[in-house]
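request received
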Amino acid sequence: MSAVTVEEVRRVAELANLQLTPEEETRMARDLGAILGHVAQLAELDTKNVEPMAQVSDVLGLVSDGAGGTLRTDAVRASVDRRAVMAVAPESDGRFFKVPKVIER
Amino acid sequence: MQTIAEARAQAQAGTATALAERHFQLIAEQDGPDGLGIHSFLALSRERALAQAARVDELQAKGQNAGPLAGVPVAIKDVLAMTGAPATAGSKILAGYQPPYDATAVRKLEAAGAVLLGKLNCDEFAMGSSNENSAYGPVRNPRALDRVPGGSSGGSAAAVAAGFAVATLGTDTGGSIRQPAAFCGVVGVLPTYGRVSRFGLIAFASSLDRVGPFTANVSDAATLLTVLAGQDPLDATSADRPVEDFSAALARPVEGLRVGVPEEYFGEGLDPEIRAAIERTLDGLRARGCELVKISLPHTRYAIPTYYVLATAEASSNLSRFDGVRFGLRSSESQTLSAMFRRTREEGFGAEVKRRILLGTYSLSAGYYDAYYRKAQQVRMLVARDFLDAFTRCDVLVAPMTPTPPFKPGEKVDDPMAMYLADIYSVAASLAGICGMSVPCGETKDGLPIGVQVMGPHFGESTMLRAGLAIEQMQEKM
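response:
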């Protein structure tokens, strides 16, 4: 089992914008350690000359031709009505999303 | 369970409106705590359903064809956007969110005449294998009320098994259609990646997520897939491939089909009753003129760790959009923006979602990227190549769908690794992007459903469905 410390969990939680309780931090350190212990077996495989697969199209020869020929045309089309989007926002003035103070001092 | 043909006949003999009302009544009587407590529905879309039923009735009264799903009651996993009902993804962070648009799959079903009854319970953000991770409470398995229905599309499988809906939509990232289909004794299809549009799906892991149907039988799955398939300009990963009539393809016999049997799927940990049921299925295929071919997929055991690195990395990125700004929950009393982000996510996400976001963020962070994320992408290539090689020697693969029958609630909730291993036979096909399905193939001596997995090559759904139909037909004879 590869050990994950509470400090590492705190650092990752900060990167992910998650605020954890002390109990959650302990629990997550234990769980991540167990999962990464299982993941460690990937190191057994020699992948030196293996291309990474990011998308299913990577193995099908369907990859975009680079010039954008396989993409849809860049044409203006109707989108979701702005009022409908703003109506379901937690806080809005009808035109913009409202949020708490951005600059902290 | 009701078939599409039966539902259409009822909608035509009576009305689609009356059929929809009967389904709403059945749901009211049985789905809630006063009934069987199955809890497959999170919301009903009564108004939209009845408006659609009235349209179908009007067309049919004029003698017009209202589509291949005319009046058929269908329901949607709550990770797909549909106007007229909330979309929660089984999470508190989206409580009360009413999406202002329809997912392409939802729109296509309605255009084919389907009556959309409502939204179905699932594990939070489709992360789970037992439906115990729903923020709105678990789903019970209609075939065995003391067992989990599987996950993450547990509500979608249960709603078909209980007869609440004739067909449902689920999503599958690592097994979330196929595993619950096996646990609830229904048919569940994982289409090839790119076959069905993901537009309007609340993303978990975009390179793996797929939308697919649950139905009472294989022929209905073919009907649904024919309706759902096709390129969509709104999903850049949807494939520019001709869509076959999958129902017509079912008519061809399976005689001469080369059925691959992957030895890695029959190893330690496979329940003996499931092993016996799969072996009976293979014997049945041989008796119908199929040629059984021994196959090795040597990287199978690396599929789970590969999947949990890649899926969580993609999730950590996809779920960053839930921050309290644009939709869903916003934590009150935050004085600054950054505090609002953190508190909203702390209050809104459940334990499994946090665990996966943390794991994904960890493997993408500086110093770990090459050892975890890039390494897993390379192993994903090896897993995919195993299948490409296999399909040069066989037409379909047949294997167990799950290592065990449906388990009891609480059995695995405290041990994430044990829960992840419930997907041991499903994640490899997810990584490779091939198509797969689960077909009922009997039950244990305690009466728990057993599913057999059929896998086909990329865009090989027609052949896969034919094999599935042959398996279904041999059950009727037993």
